[in-house]
Every structure is written in C-alpha cells, then in structure tokens.
Amino acid sequence: MPAYAPPLADLAFLLHEVLGLERAGLPGAAELDRDTTAAILAEAGRLAADVLAPLNAAGDREGCRIENGGVRTPAGFPAAYAAMCAGGWTGLDCDPAHGGQGMPHVLHTAVGEMFVSANMALQMVAGLTHGAVSALAAHGSAEQKALYLPPLVAGRWTGTMNLTEPHCGTDLGLVATRAEPAPDGSWRITGTKIFISAGDHDLAPNIVHLVLARAPGGGAGTRGLSLFVVPKVLPDADGRLGARNAVVAARLERKMGIHGSPTCEMRYEGATGWLVGEPHKGMRAMFTMMNEARLGVGLQGLAQAAAAGQAAAAYARERLQGRAATGPAFPDRPADPLIVHPDIRRTLMDIRAFVEGGRALALWAAMLIDRSRSAGDAGAEGLASLLIPVVKGFLTDKGFEACVAAQQVWGGHGYVEDNGLAQYVRDARIAMIYEGANGIQALDLVARKLPSDGGRHIAAFLAEVRGAAADADPAFGAPLAAAAADLEAALAVFMAEGLRNPDAALAGASDFLHLAGHVALGLMWARMAAAARAALEAGRGDAAFLQAKLVTGRHWMARHLPATALHLARIRAGGATVMDLPAEAF
Ligand SMILES: Cc1cc2nc3c(=O)[nH]c(=O)nc-3n(C[C@H](O)[C@H](O)[C@H](O)COP(=O)(O)OP(=O)(O)OC[C@H]3O[C@@H](n4cnc5c(N)ncnc54)[C@H](O)[C@@H]3O)c2cc1C
Hints:
Elements lengths: L7 H11 L15 H19 L3 H7 L2 E3 L2 E3 L4 H10 L18 H35 L2 H13 L2 E6 L15 E4 L5 E11 L8 E9 L10 E7 L1 E3 L5 E4 L2 E6 L10 E14 L5 H7 L1 H29 L23 H33 L3 H32 L2 H4 L5 H9 L8 H12 L6 H16 L2 H24 L4 H5 L2 H30 L4 H18 L2 H11 L2 H4 L7
Parallel strand pairs: 3-6
Antiparallel strand pairs: 1-2, 4-5, 5-11, 6-7, 7-11, 8-9, 10-11
The protein binds flavin-adenine dinucleotide (FAD).
C-alpha cells in the first residue's frame, strides 16, 4: 500500500487562487497569506501522513472492544488522538474565547480532509466533538459554555450526538427516550440510543453526550423533542470530574467498516442531564449544526476517494500487465505498466476529476458557512443550505463509486484485504447512510431547499452557473450552459408536479440531487480552469500542475457533465414505473 501523500498543492491552489482566502474578509483570514496557510497545511499533512495514516489498517484489523465495562480503541489511537489535541487541531476554527484558534471553517475543512483520508475512524471523534461544540456554542447557557466548551475545544473531553433509537433513525418523531425534571433543575434521562459513534472510548476521561429526548408537555412528533447535555462523568462547576453518570455503552456493533470507530448502544438509566436551549426546541438546536455536520460527512466520501485514487494511480504506474495498444511503451520490460491502457487511464481520470472538483465544492461550501456566520450574509447562508444536501449526497455516493473504481485498478489485489483498497470501500460506504441517508438528502433538497425563500437560492445558484458558463472558454462554457439548461428544465418539472403529484416528483429526487451535483462540479471546474489560466498567464505557480488542472477539468466537462441529460430524462419519466406495482408484488 503506497504511503498517503497530503494534497498540499491542490489545497493551496483552491484556497488562494480559486477562493481568494486572504481577500475574503473572513475573521482570522486576513493573516492567512500563502506562506502561512502552506505552513499550517504542511504541519497538518505531516500529522496525517506520519501519525494517523500508519494506524489506519491496523485500527481496521484490530477494531474496538469492551473491556472492564469500557470501550478500548485500537492500539496507537489514544496517542495519535493526543497528538491531534496537542497540535491544537481540534479547535482550529473555534472561538478563541473558548480556547480555539479562531481560524475560518474553510481551513478547518481543508485540514479535515487530510485527517479523514489518513484515518476516518479516528478523525470521527474530533468531528463529533466539533459538532457538540457548535451546538453548545449556539444554544448552551453561559454556565454550560464555560463548563463544557474549553475542554471540548481542546479535545480533553469529546462529544457525541445521540439521536437514533432501535425503532427510529430517519423519523425522529418516534424518539422514546424520556426526560423527567429533577427538583435541582437538572433532568433524569432514560432510554436506549443505538449506533452512537464514539459513545464510549479510552481517548479522553470524559464524554459529553448531546441527547434528544422527550420532556413532559412537548407532545408527539419532532416538536416534542428537547436537547440535553449528559456527561459520562459528572463535573463540578470548575470542571473537576466526580462520579460516573448513569449512562453506559452496553454493546458495540459489528459492522462493515470504520472498525476503529466504536459504534455504541447507549443505555441511559436515569442519567443526570441538563437542558440545552429551550424545552421542546431540540430539533432546532440540531438544525444549527446540520450544515456543518453534513459537510463533514460529504468530506468523508471525498477524502476516502482521494486516498483510494492516490493508491490506484501509484499501482497503475508500477503493475506490469499487457502491452500498450499502440505498441510496447517499455520494450525493455516484460510488459507495460497498467497506466498505458486507455481504460485504466479513464478510471484514473474519472477519480481525479471527481476528487479535485469535489474538493473545490467542499471548500466553497465551507467558505459560504464562514460568510454566513461572520458577516451574517443571508445570501451565503441560503446558498450553503441549498448546497449542503448536494455536498453530502453527491460527494458520498460518488466518493464510494470512486473507491470501488480505485479498487478495480488493483484487480484481485484490490479485493483482498492486505492492500488497503477494500478498507477504503468499506469505510466510505457508511457516509452514504448516516447524518441523513442520501435518499433523505435528496428529499431535503427537492422538498425543502428548492422552494425555500420563494426559490431565491436555486435562482442564485443558477445565476452563478450561467455567469461562469458565459465567461468560460467553449470547452468549459458550452457543456456548463447545456447542463444549466437541464437543471432549469428539471426545476420546471418539480414546479409543475410538486404539489399535483408528489410521488412523481419525489421519484426523481435522487436524480435531481445528482443532476445538481454534476452541475456544481461543472461550476467548480469552470472556476478552477479560469484560475489556472490566470495563474499561467501571470507566470505564477507550477505550470505542469496548472496545465493538468485544465486537462482534468476538460475531462469532467466532456465525460461527466453530460450525465445531466440522463438524470433529466429520468426526472421527466415521473413516478409511473416507480409506483405502479402494488407493494405485494415486491
Ligand atoms: C456506523 C454508524 C454510525 C452512526 N452514528 C450515529 C451517531 O453518532 N448518532 C446517531 O444518532 N446516529 C448514528 N447513526 C445512525 C444513522 O444516522 C441512521 O442509521 C440513519 O439516520 C438512518 O436511520 P435508520 O438506520 O434507522 O434507517 P431508516 O430510517 O429505517 O431508513 C431506511 C431507508 O429508508 C429510507 N427512508 C426512510 N424514511 C424515508 C422517507 N420518508 N422517504 C424516503 N425514504 C426514506 C432511508 O433513506 C434509508 O435508505 C449511525 C449509524 C451507523 C451505521
């Protein structure tokens, strides 16, 4: 298995040439000139390549186990996690008032990609903790912020999200975990949560569970849910740890991938918790961090594809099989390397065009989140919330596909477990399911995000796409304009069918998400091509890198963007074949 190489040049190109980080007017970004971001990314890249990546396969093989009533993570994970905390990476974009470094979310996202590529299972602990920080920072009381945020930001304590129960995943209106008020103002939480990532572990002495539960008087459905903070170990007002709370990880799931991440069944047996925010407004608190959490999961799909793609390219350069169709490329060797074969090249280019386009999309979305937070930019917020289901659904569906394609380059050696490709496939698969399964992302996009604010955000997105198509050279502009027309035609179908025939409209929801994903990457490639050309003309940067950008972008435009026509055809086909058979016929 080739060593993981952090994509430092590509991240720097995106942050500075495409997104103009230092000119974006974000807090903490003015000092982020090229040298400073290069130093930060290089340091993060070293941690990813030298500390996290070497534990990835071993962590997968060893997995987690319950020992003496607690969860043990694989050998090396506690020390590697401690190195992440010592480097300040857990609080990179957190508020300095809580011990964070106050840098933009977009930089946190760039660093996060490298950590996820290197070791998705371990990075999940930091990712969930970051989500807990955001929820408490937005909705916690002053006391809760003072008590929980400094140790969470520093990574000394970690966080979890407790939504799922045995009978409810997508439909959180069915949550049965109960919360009863106690005389001292705290609450007693009782119920079972399942599939809780990092619900217990040996990486930190305390775990801060955020739990959705039903308090009296809230009524049925999601409106009756409240959010509670339930620490594993009860701290005093100064954060000193005291007694164990009445919450245990009762068992661990055996699962397809992310074996280094403990997926716990959590039993709350009258555990002490405190209300976060207002009663019966728990879903609203969850929604606050949803954009960030879904971007984080989209990044997982992309990051696994990036790492698998690197491994595929390295193998294709070395593995000797067959001869080039145009005659031996290396006559002095017994055979040519795989990379001479057009079908292998196609596979590598497909992965590369997706990864580089997806990376641009993830960073753009992160920057929109920055703009919406720091400048209160409502347009950025609307665009971010429109794009987030696309980032989550498209990057994880396509990320998984890219991992499978990389595995294919390795042939049978990709299927056996020793070479690491199988792990990328297994690990990437979950990102399509959790944090709202991808079918739910498509529903969210079509039913909530398209009509929101009278369709203003999709109109703004289309205007960006049309503008980029008009400015681009024909190799980029013409396919992008055609794809934008397909997107507009699909919108017209939803407007006509949405209310009249919801089954017909929703039968096309996943196709719409993929259509929008293709267009979004088309927009990213048009922007990257323009930036590469400008840098080439100015004599800035590495010419070979910039020329490769142009070739890779043309590959997306010519070979992937036409998929919008197929998605449009399926959307126009409506719900007939999808809904016609009676349920008993299945
Ligand atoms: C490894 C792992 C880690 C996880 N970590 C966490 C965690 O940390 N915290 C946490 O709370 N949960 C976690 N989960 C749970 C995860 O978020 C849920 O599994 C997910 O939300 C789907 O819920 P479900 O499994 O109950 O599937 P269901 O809700 O039963 O859905 C099954 C399928 O039906 C589709 N579907 C459901 N409803 C509809 C609808 N109305 N319209 C169309 N399609 C629909 C879904 O898209 C899905 O494909 C984790 C799960 C796993 C496997």
